[in-house]
């Protein structure tokens, strides 16, 4: 009996090893091919990624994506927008329509290429089928703050973060991602006149973000105020509507990178 169990276990481990090795070899080869194309023809790869949105998110997971992100974002006549936190996908759907008033207000060239990142598997699975059908929208299940680090210098035109988790309990403040380190990374990756738009309904978190951003007041032109979607040329999102129904005020911060 023991011998039989040992043989079965050995066969399983052997099959598992072969399958895993084959999978990673496949991803490695695919990564090499895509990144070689990215270097030779970044425009072609960008179009391929956004047209094959159903499988494109895979390339954000393997080893070679930093090179790919670097080249496809830098070579474009349009504008690259990174949305951290897809949520109910209201903004991503809106940006896919290529809104001229939005582009004009923030000084962006059309077409808009939107990379929207959702960390929650629940929300990602819920809205991915709809988003994968949209033109110029790439939907990824990952940590958006980690994805930001994959882009090269001066490759993004805008970063949008609407109603992030405030981690309101004092013992959870260390988990807050919108720190000085985030703004340092964002500054390096934004193009001249690139912008960061942040909205939150949490007054204390708003102050926390603003204080961190003010440390870069020589590098960003900062405006702030009451968050009204119409004034910012964006649609009302799920969480904005939720808090508006109970008369809770929301706030925004808009930071524009200086040309220095």
Percent of residues in helical segments? 40-55%
CATH topology type of the largest domain: Rossmann fold
- Order of strands side by side in the largest beta sheet? 3-2-1-4-5-7-6
- Unreliable sequence segments: 53-64
| Helical segment count | 11
What does this structure look like?
There is one protein chain. The chain is α/β, with parallel strands linked by helices and 260 residues long. The protein has two domains: 1-72, no CATH class; 76-257, Rossmann fold (3-Layer(aba) Sandwich). It contains eleven helices and seven strands. Strands 3-2-1-4-5-7-6 form a seven-stranded mixed beta sheet, with helices on both faces. α7 links the parallel β2 and β3. The termini are far apart.
Give the topology, please.
Layout: H1 2-40, H2 42-51, H3 53-56, H4 65-74, E1 79-84, H5 90-96, H6 100-105, E2 112-118, H7 121-131, E3 137-141, H8 144-148, E4 156-162, H9 180-189, E5 190-200, H10 203-214, E6 220-226, H11 238-245, E7 251-257
Parallel strand pairs: 1-2, 1-4, 2-3, 4-5
Antiparallel strand pairs: 5-7, 6-7
Helix pairs in contact: 1-2, 1-4, 2-4
């Amino acid at each position: 009996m023991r011998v039989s169990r040992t043989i079965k276990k050995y066969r399983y481990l052997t099959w598992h090893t072969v399958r895993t090795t084959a999978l990673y070899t496949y991803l490695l080869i695919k990564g090499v091919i895509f990144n070689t194309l990215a270097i030779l023809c970044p425009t072609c790869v960008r179009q391929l990624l956004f047209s094959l949105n159903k499988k494109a998110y895979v390339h954000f997971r393997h080893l070679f994506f930093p090179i790919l992100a670097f080249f496809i974002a830098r070579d474009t006549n349009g504008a690259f927008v990174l949305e951290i936190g897809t949520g109910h996908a209201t903004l991503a759907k809106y940006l896919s329509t290529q809104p001229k008033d939005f582009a004009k207000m923030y000084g962006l060239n059309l077409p808009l290429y939107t990379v929207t990142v959702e960390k929650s598997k629940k929300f990602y699975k819920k809205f991915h089928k709809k988003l994968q059908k949209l033109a110029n929208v790439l939907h990824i299940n990952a940590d958006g703050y980690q994805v930001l680090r994959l882009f090269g210098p001066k490759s993004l035109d805008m970063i949008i973060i609407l109603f992030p988790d405030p981690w309101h309990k004092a013992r959870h403040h260390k988990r807050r991602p919108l720190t000085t380190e985030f703004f340092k990374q964002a500054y390096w990756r934004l193009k001249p006149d690139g912008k960061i738009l942040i909205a939150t309904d949490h007054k204390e978190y708003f102050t926390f973000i603003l204080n961190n951003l003010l440390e870069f007041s020589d590098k960003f032109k900062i405006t702030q105020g009451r968050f009204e979607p119409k004034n910012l040329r964006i649609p009302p999102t799920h969480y904005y509507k939720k808090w508006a129904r109970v008369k809770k005020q929301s706030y925004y911060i808009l930071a524009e990178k200086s040309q220095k």
